[in-house]
Amino acid sequence: MGVEKVFTKELMDFGYIQIWGIKLHLVLTDVVVTTWVAMAVVSVISFFLTRNLSVKSPSLRQILAETVIVAMAKQIRDFSQTPVFPFFSLIATMWIFVAFSNLIGMVPPFHTPTGNIAAVAGLSTITFFSIYYYGVRFHGIGYFKKFFEPVFILFPLNVIGEFGRILSLTFRLFGNMLGWDLIIAILVLLTGLLVPVPMMLFNIVGDIIQAYLFGVLTLAYIVAGLRVEEIDKKLSGIKEDWYEI
């Protein structure tokens, strides 16, 4: 791994287009390609793990997949204290995709997508809109009253606070991943593979923790504006097992 691998490379330049007066520069970078590869890997593994499922005689891969799924469901339940079903698809996908995006940078010649601020900003944008999707889903348009609480003159500060949380989410993951990539690259230049190899093994654990924190913070931002009793009331007809959460 060299220092040059840390920074984004332009692979193809498609020039400029103009949409509604906004001039956009279309460039295909190695980060985009690596993100596509990560998406393809996750899709193929998911397809493989969900074939020929059986209740009576589950295969080893089915047991492994169910163990991971149930563990993620328990984490969502323990953290949110709400039914798991509404949030599982989003949060579990965040955990899996961000973890693969973090780890794929260790495989030459791929670039870590989450070490690029544009890629992380895209993930944070999903978090941003998810907050309001779930807010309106469970509380209707009245969800937006929170911006005028405790007194209406605090509306501008509440709006700034909402954007501040998303910015902090973006820069926390981007900064951690870019900084770690730089440290590993510099150590490779200075010491060869003697020191970086054990550090890269330790980095696997760090990458998974970063993915976990990104998903947990997304869940925290979503449930922070929700009333648990309202969710329980609306989802009272749904029975959840998740191995008896």
From TrEMBL:
Instruction: Offer one Pfam family short name for this entry.
Output: ATP-synt_A
Task: Give coiled-coil spans as residue ranges.
Answer: none
User: What keywords sit in the KW lines?
Assistant: ATP synthesis, Cell membrane, CF(0), Hydrogen ion transport, Ion transport, Membrane, Transmembrane, Transmembrane helix, Transport
Q: What is its main location?
A: membrane
Q: Where does this polypeptide localize? A: Cell membrane; Membrane
InterPro entries assigned: ATP_syn_F0_a_bact/chloroplast, ATP_synth_F0_asu, ATP_synth_F0_asu_AS, F0_ATP_A_sf
Highest taxon, organism lineage: Bacteria
Key word RNA-binding present: no
Q: Topology with regard to the membrane?
A: Multi-pass membrane protein
User: What is stated as this protein's family in its record?
Assistant: Belongs to the ATPase A chain family.
Name assigned to this protein: ATP synthase subunit a
